[in-house]
Amino acid sequence: MHEVVTLQFGQQANYLGTHFWNTQESYFTYAGQEESPVDHDISFRAGIGADGNDTYTPRTLIYDLKGAFGTLRRENALYELQHQPDPTQQGPWGGSTIPLQLPSIAPSMYQQALDQGTSPPQLTTDTVRFWSDYNHLFYHPRSIVQLNQYELNSSLMPFEKWQSGEELFSNLDREHDLLDRDLRPSLEECDQLQALQIFTSTDDAWGGFTSRYLERISDELGKGCRWVFGLKDGKQNTRETQMLQFSNWAQSLYGMDAHASVHIPVSTPPSLLPPYVHLDAYSPWHTSALATAMVESITMPARLRSPEAARATYDQMEATLNNEGNRRIAAASISIEDPGALQSGAEEGGQHDSRMTNGITNGDMHDEETKDDLAMFPHMFGGNVGHGRRLGRKTYTFSRVESLRGPWKSSEEIESMNIESRDRFAGGLRTSTHQCQLLFPILSSYPRIFNFDGRPERIAIKTTLSASTAVADQVRELERMSRRLIGIDEREAVCDGLASIADEYEEGWSESDESGDDD
Question: Under CATH, domain 3-76+108-503 is a member of which superfamily?
Answer without folding.
Answer: Tubulin/FtsZ, GTPase domain (3.40.50.1440)
